[in-house]
Write a structure and sequence with these properties.
Elements: H1 3-16, E1 31-35, E2 44-54, E3 57-66, E4 70-73, E5 75-80, E6 83-87, E7 100-104, E8 108-115, E9 118-126, H2 129-133, E10 159-162, H3 164-167, H4 173-185, H5 188-191, E11 195-197, E12 203-206, E13 212-214, H6 221-230, E14 234-239, H7 256-266, E15 270-274, H8 285-302, E16 307-311, E17 329-331, H9 340-349, E18 362-364, H10 377-390, E19 394-396, H11 405-412, H12 414-420, E20 429-434, E21 437-443, E22 449-455, E23 461-464, E24 476-479, E25 484-486, E26 493-496, E27 501-507
Parallel strand pairs: 10-11, 10-19, 11-14, 14-15, 15-16, 16-17, 17-18
Antiparallel strand pairs: 1-2, 1-9, 2-3, 3-4, 5-6, 6-7, 7-8, 8-9, 12-13, 20-21, 21-22, 22-27, 23-26, 24-25, 24-27
Bound molecules: alpha-D-galactopyranose.
């Protein structure tokens, strides 16, 4: 018997007994309401609740609309008296969904809860059908699955600089020009760092025709590209397939072809395409593939070669299909931080499936933090050594206008860069793990082998390698950081500082 029918039976008895009449039966509100303000993330606009009368009683369903995520369906809906309790899935598998509560009446409601990292408690008022309709969020078809052949292919792991790790959204035209200058004067360009990539924070609004404009910090993107090109460097930019970039700027949702044309017209050579709010729209392997494919095809249609960098945090085994959507590199992980623990976790453990890497497509364990100040020189040496052993893209993340001699030495050592850029494009692997020590090997094109000796422990230690155990018969051993030769016997036991690394090139 339903709760309602129980009450119908009880009410006459209550009257007969002279008891006070029971309050009207509580039920959650139904209808549509428009939010009055609220946090920018996710920019809630409206909530709609619908009640269905079924044989087993009433069931509720609903949709919450926002600028970041469009329509999110209410999940796990349950009724608690006059409130509706539900979950919202924003497409991020790492977010633990928590209860969101909607309470009120036909005229106004309150929605309280948490989505990702934002708490909210916001009122909404009833609105006309027309006003609610005006907040409809558009959806767009995705292309049928195809394999894209890009015009730009990275034969070796891309090398360059990116604004995010050091500057976040505090980046502007003047700084990018100064960085380009410093790439020349510091010798970084000549060491191979070619791309100057503007990350999140350059985007402005769209004009009446939908053409995306840079914000006021970037008065003339084409002129900036010309400036960078004149220095023999290349210019990269950043966008998202979602309506919003990760920092809340305009994404390319609904404007993919148009934005690719804009980037090409500016003279862009590299696009980092970051899933961000797109994770709510594209949270299956098929849809993520399709939207990256769509951008790759849009780039190809411009006929301007652009390196396509996929940033979807390694979801859905991206390395197994990244090349098929024209990707030259794909992130294997969430964001790096300028901390040894985070860098080491990514470098040692979250560096992608080794077989996926190779000429034309690279596992990307995220950009470098070397020179940003949060790690010791030896920790940064581990960072560079690991990235070189992995054949990872070397995208600088520091302020190259101001570098210590140590930083310059870490970033420009030609023998270390040669290991990273080796034409065989093999991702090195741990050959031996012994407590806090790891010995990695990487076969190089000329028949030699790079050997990385890593001390993950908190104390200095001597690390012993046995050449035979590694299948090596060295005639020559080169300490590439020290730029000196060692005898094969002496190189079998070496002192490695805490959190430090030694990098050897062993020639048979
Ligand atoms: C994400 C990416 C970062 C950076 C920021 C910008 O977090 O993983 O590399 O691009 O977005 O908002």
């Amino acid at each position: 018997m339903s709760r309602k029918s129980v009450l119908l039976h009880v009410l006459p008895i209550a009257g007969w007994l002279g008891m006070a009449a029971l309050p009207a039966l509580a039920a959650p509100p139904t209808g549509g309401w428009i939010f009055d303000g609220g946090p920018d993330f996710p920019g809630f606009t409206r909530v709609q609740v619908h009640k269905d009368h079924g044989q087993k009683g009433d069931t509720y369903s609903g949709v919450v609309t926002s600028h970041w995520y469009g329509d999110l369906k209410m999940d796990d809906v349950r009724v608690d008296g006059d409130t509706l309790v539900f979950h919202l899935f924003n497409g991020n598998p790492r977010v633990t969904e928590t209860d969101i509560v909607l309470k009120g009446d036909a005229r106004s409601v309150h929605m309280t809860g948490k989505l990702w990292y934002t708490d909210f408690d916001i009122p909404a008022h009833a609105a006309t059908r027309t006003a609610l309709k005006a907040l409809d969020f558009p959806t767009y078809p995705l292309p049928p699955r195809r394999v894209v052949k890009p015009l730009a292919r990275a034969e070796t792991p891309p090398m360059g600089w990116n604004s995010w790790n050091k500057f976040a959204t505090d980046i502007d035209d003047k700084t990018v020009r100064e960085i380009a200058d410093a790439m020349m004067t510091s010798g970084l360009r000549d060491a191979g760092y070619l791309y100057i990539n503007i990350d999140d924070g350059w985007q402005g609004e769209r004009d009446k025709s939908g053409v995306l404009q840079p914000n006021s910090k970037f008065p003339d993107m084409k002129a900036l590209a010309d400036y960078v090109h004149a220095k023999g460097l290349k210019l990269g930019i950043y966008s998202s397939p979602g309506p919003k970039s990760c920092a809340g700027y305009e994404g390319s949702y609904g404007h993919i072809e148009q934005d690719a044309k804009t980037f090409a017209a500016w003279g862009i050579d590299y696009l980092k395409y970051d899933l961000c709010s797109g994770e709510a729209f594209y949270h299956t392997p098929e849809t993520v593939y399709a939207v990256y494919q769509q951008m790759a095809e849009a780039i190809a249609a411009t006929r301007r070669p652009m390196i396509f960098s996929l940033c979807e945090y390694g979801r859905f085994d991206v390395g197994s299909w990244g090349r098929d959507v024209g990707g030259s590199l794909w992130r294997t992980t969430g964001d790096i931080e300028d901390k040894y623990e985070t860098m080491a976790k990514i470098g040692f453990e979250k560096n992608g499936v080794p077989n996926h890497t190779g000429p034309g497509g690279w596992n990307d364990p995220d950009m470098l933090e070397v020179g940003n100040g949060g790690m010791t020189t030896e920790e940064y040496r581990t960072h560079m050594s690991l990235w070189a052993m992995m054949a990872a893209p070397l995208i600088l993340g520091n302020d190259v206008r101001h570098m210590t001699p140590d930083t310059v030495a870490l970033l420009t050592n030609p023998e270390v860069i040669a290991i990273d850029q080796d034409a065989a494009g093999i991702q090195g692997l741990p050959a031996k793990k012994d407590g806090g020590y790891e010995v990695w090997t990487k076969k190089l094109k000329d028949g030699s082998t790079a050997v990385g000796l890593f001390n993950r422990g908190d104390d200095a230690a001597s690390v012993t390698v046995n050449w035979a155990d590694l299948g090596l018969k060295p005639a020559k051993v080169r300490d590439v950081w020290a730029k000196s030769d060692l005898t094969p016997a002496a190189a079998q036991t070496v002192a490695v500082p805490r959190h430090g690394a030694m990098l050897l090139r062993v020639t048979p």
